[in-house]
Amino acid sequence: MIEAEKIEALTGHQNPVYSLEPSQKRGILFTAGNDKGVVEWSLEKMEFIKVLMPVQSSVYAMHGPSTVPVLAVGERSGIVSLFDFREQKVTARFQNHTLPVFALGSVSRKNELLSASEDGHVSVISLSSNTLIYRFKVSDLTVRCMAVSPDEQQVAFGCKDHVVRIYNLDDYTLAHELKAHTEPITAVGYSPDGKTLLSGARDAKLNIWDAKGFTLLDSITAHMFALYDIKYHPSKPYFATASQDKSIKIWDARTFSLKKVISREKGFAAHSHSVNKIAWDPQNDRLISVSDDKNVIVWDIRF
User: Fold this and answer.
1) Are the C-beta atoms of 234 and 303 separated by less than 8 Å?
2) Burial zone of 256 (CB within 10 Å; 0-12 exposed, 13-18 middle, 19+ buried)
3) Segments making up each domain of the chain, as ranges
4) What is the pTM of this model?
5) pLDDT digits (tens, 9 = 90+) for 232-270
6) Of 83, 132, 123, nearest to 105 (Cα)?
7) Quick one: average pLDDT of 33-50?
8) Which of 17, 92, 93, 164 has the fewest C-beta atoms under 10 angstroms from its C-beta?
9) Angle at 120 between CA 296 and CA 239, to 5 degrees
10) Is the Cβ–Cβ distance between 281 and 26 less than 8 Å?
11) Dihedral through CA 74, CA 172, CA 231, CA 251, nearest 10?
12) What are the Cα distances from residue 280, in Å, to 95, 134, 209, 290?
């Protein structure tokens, strides 16, 4: 039986928190939202460290590539900034989008950063030269989320037009379109073995896809409202989902059965508003969540 315990609530944000990203450095977490800066936290001491960098508008996406010591930050203004940990400052800033950047990801084998926007386009940035390589249209509407496959052969984009689009990462050509949701896609995630792709949407459904044959394996009504994030545990056969319904759920990745619900209705001192993003601390079995309630909560999950 899975047990969950609230370890700490990291407070200090004055407005809703939309994004979080564990650092490449052990024990460090970054969070950001509708405040004027990206916040750095110590997960070892469970305390505020500093405001890492100022921002000009709300932050909807952050990503720490494995190939370079930088944090990529995507803003509502369309700006993507790269904060270099060696120089402790922003060393590059890109205005490839004029509308909000909702998702960031990277392709390690190509040392490239991907940014997806409300303008329906994806930009490909070289992390070697900090230059724009390519920009392509994915949808007539917003590209809300993305997930790079573990083998880095494909990337899935979740779009406002209810479609998940799969692109080849060698040449950024469209490989497949997955159509089953009835509302905008808000979350996508590949299983660590790359065999399964999960998609979540405003229809509250969790769709389970064969990532190789692109067939729909199952569709589950996972939450009461929009499903905002999906994160697989890095080493155990479980994944977590977060929702507008204020809950976090833990699922068995083999059977797709629900194993735990973390919410106020279940007796937890949980979030009082929408849970916007979640992340597993790569060093342990702790799950971190951020919310419209301005809080960052660290959960101990015992399997």
Assistant:
1) no
2) middle
3) 141-213
4) 0.97
5) 999 999 999 999 999 999 999 999 999 999 999 999 999
6) 123
7) 97
8) 93
9) 40
10) no
11) 150
12) 30, 31, 22, 12
Residue type, 14: Q
Q: Which amino acid is at 222?
A: A
The two structure tokens encoding residue 226: 């929009």
Q: Return the amino acid letter for 36.
A: K
CATH 2.160.20 fits 141-213, yes or no: no
User: pLDDT tens digits for 106-125?
Assistant: 999 999 999 999 999 999 99
Residues 17/30, Cβ–Cβ less than 8 Å = no
The length of the chain, given as a count of residues:
303
- CB within 8 Å of 171: residues ≥ 6 apart: none
Structural contact between residues 226 and 202, judged by C-beta atoms closer than 8 angstroms: yes
Per-residue CA distances from 158 to 55, 142, 208, 284 (Å)? 26, 9, 14, 29
Would you state the structure tokens that stand for residue 135, as one six-digit string? 């920009």
Tokens (6 digits) for 214: 């692109």
